[in-house]
Fold:
Amino acid sequence: MSSFSSLFTRRKNKNRGRISQKEIYDKEGIPKHFDLNLEKNLKSMQELFNQTSDYEEIEIKIGDLKGCVCYLGTTLNKSELNTHVLEPLRAAFKQPKTESHKDIDYVREAFFPAVSYKYGETLHQLVWQMLNGYAIIMLDQHNRALALNIGGTDKRSIEEPSTQTIIRGPKEGFVEDINTNIGLIRKKIKNPRLVFEEFNVGIDSNTQLKIGYMKGIVNEDILSEVRQRISKINASGILDTGNVEEFISDETFTFFPLVFNSERPDSISGNILEGKIAILLDGSPFVLIVPSVFTDFFQSTEDYYQPFFMTSFIRIIRYMSFMITLTFPSLYVAITTYHHELMPTPLLINLQSQREGVPFPAVIEILMMELTFEVLREAGVRMPRAVGQTLSIVGALVIGQAAVEAGLVSNVLVVVVAFSAIASFVSPIYNFSIAARLIRFILIIMAASLGLYGILLLLIIMVIHLVSLRSFGIPYLTPVAPFKMKDQSDIFIRVPIWGDRYRPTYLMTKAPVKTKKSPPPSAPKQDSGGKKENE
Amino acid sequence: MKQQVEKISLWQLYILIICFQIGSAALVGIGNEAKQDAWIAVIIGTLFGIAIMLYYLFLLSKVPGKNLFELFVFCFGKWVGKFLTLLYVIYFFYISARVLRDFCELLVSTIFEVTPLEVISITMMLVIVYIFQHGLEVLGRTSEVFFPYVVAFIVMTGLGIWFSGEFEMSNIQPILGDGFKPVLKALFPTMITFPFGEAITFMVISAYIGTKKNIKKVSAVGVLTSGILLTYGAVIQIATLGVDVKDRANFPLLSASREISLLNFIERVDLIIVFFVMFGIIVKVGIFFYGGLKGLELITNKPYRSMTLPMGSLIAFFTVVISHNFVEHIEEGLVFVPFYLHIPFQFGIPLLLLPFILWKTRKKQKKESSS
Amino acid sequence: MRALMFLIIFVLLSLLIAQIDAYLFKSNLFNQLKTLLSIDNGSNKWMIYTFLLIGLLYSVGNSVKEKLQKLKNIGSK
Structure:
């Protein structure tokens, strides 16, 4: 018995967090078969499960054979179990004994014809299957056991994603169950070339991870790199794709996210069709997309559903608001502290009169306000919903009116801080606004010490850092630097979708051309008589 | 992961050339001896600049894949080559310290009157050291990001002055009033060596370009574009300020941009100009710094990335130490540097290279044709 | 090796600049060299001397690290 548990401990060293059903060897490299004696097998199963309370056994008899149905009650749907497994077995009990019942294949074909099944030959396999919602039927004096796929525990129903909202477009969002998520993607891309590969991550949690891509479009080098990085994931438990993200990013010491994530199937499907790779994790509604570059974080799927003039304008606003949120507070500090001449005189006089009664220098004012705002923002997320409404009013009062009237901060400052805070949420991906927030603090300090020169130095350093980042080998600021003319059609402006014929060149896809060249859509031609030609 | 060897693309080379030439030339004011014909001097200087650049590229094309210092070793043998490399390293570091000093003087005299020069010199060198810790392609890509804004700003300065109504085209006349002699005086030796002769540093970079096909064309167009921008700058300066002020002003472009006054709102924008020149300075100092580092790499056989910080600290030191005040700095630049430093290093030694290269490559060709 | 190059370049550049100053001010080289390298009262030269020291320590540290690695490599072989 102890050799079975030692099977589990050795797994940690050998497979480094990745166990799959194909690799179940003991120390000699031979799979451990289970015994032919039913009693012994049941006893070892109970040992393996450490006498957990949801392990259930039902003894059965098929003809002459003694057998047992084992399952974990919490991993499958009891009513399904009843209909598919227990009912046929009850019928089997009443049947006369025949010789053919000695064969487990016959048992399966006779009693469980419509259930998906697997055979298990080692106890390790059976344990793994039971954890995944299978019911095991073990018969005495047989060296194989039948595992029937029951599954089907409760899951959340598909609802609108809470974090990435749009005005126009599909409102479905991913849920925690990985199979439902794959189903949502398959609804959008009905193509047999959409392939999903399965992995197991987490040494103790054994979570299922799947990568999805379009075979024939995706670049094979990037794909093999993704596979390699996933196999190197070494953690006790992987509970969310955020954990996966930290493992597969090129560089972790950076503010900027190197992996795109989304809760929306249309976003993920669009990216898969461009030639990127999706990473789904069982239990997380956020799906990752690799490789991602800087400009991906400023795109929202709604951009493609609204008219292209409007979305080009909004894209430019997004980039501008990123710059605003970065530099606005620090510009305020620099200009009011060092470079008074840059402001037009009436505004300058206004500003100074407002700052008359404020005891703090501009830097301290701003830092105080920014910190207050960060605290408010974080508290707003964590607050239970009941209390949230009242507290938001209090927050507005505290920051807005009272602080100004108490003479702690000036009016202009509230405008500056509030505007830059709102501007930070324009990026559709939450990770990105965190980068802007953090860099903003550093910029404020640089502005206070070296003025406008300090701001510009830090911006140059930030650009240098961005330029040296790579996401799976692709420079992070593609296609701005290195400048690729062909990819410019989707960055700052969006060309209409009938003009968007090429996949991004930096992905080095195998199918760079999306559609054949066709003239833009136009109305049917009318001749001079006014009669419409219907052809 | 795919290891990227340092390569810059042709477009990045073009941008680097422009930012490099504009770097300090747009600011300091060139062609002053020619008075109101300075812009003509710049145009002719551009033509000379293109010729110089093509000559350097011709030398490089004979021995493909090698940079300037490897060329020395190739022509003159190991020890003489290394000695020449050391001389060039000193030269490049000295020039980068000079350029950085120009910029520090600019900041200290216009904006940060109380800040010590050392602070600016150290912070700029820290940024440049950071760039080269990551390699040359980072410089290329960073300049790709900033390039549109730098050029747009220079153009908009001119437009801004025009819309403010400060242009007096009569300042440019009489065209060639004193004949060609002032123009020629401006050209030799100052204009040819600064900024056009400094293209010798591109001999170090040209070896690291991704596609070698159109280097000559792209470099020539780059020099031409920078010449056009410089002429544009010279015209603005002369037209706005008049010849005398331009001659005497330390930073004519800055003084010209002070005249911008639009809508009662946009005023005193010389501050912003400074910061766009800052980027050109970073490119210029960076490229000279890189030239020196590559030379050191040849002498010591060690990768240059380990030497960035020490050499950076050296340059920061010498930026401050080079002269005691701005006047001395300018005087050195006009009297000593062109004759004793620029001419031998930019023209003397490369001209000396020519017969050696021809001889050695002809020997190789003969060997190849005979074998 | 690196620290050596550092010192060589330092010396050569100082000599060059001192020579230029000597030429301009028509005094001799040694005086100019002294003025160049001195830290006057109230000036801020100590900042760049500190930075220079940091650079020197960095290059020395790098050389030492490399020598240690070489020794380790030879030792392990």
Remarks:
- Chains A and C do not touch (no CB pair under 8 Å).
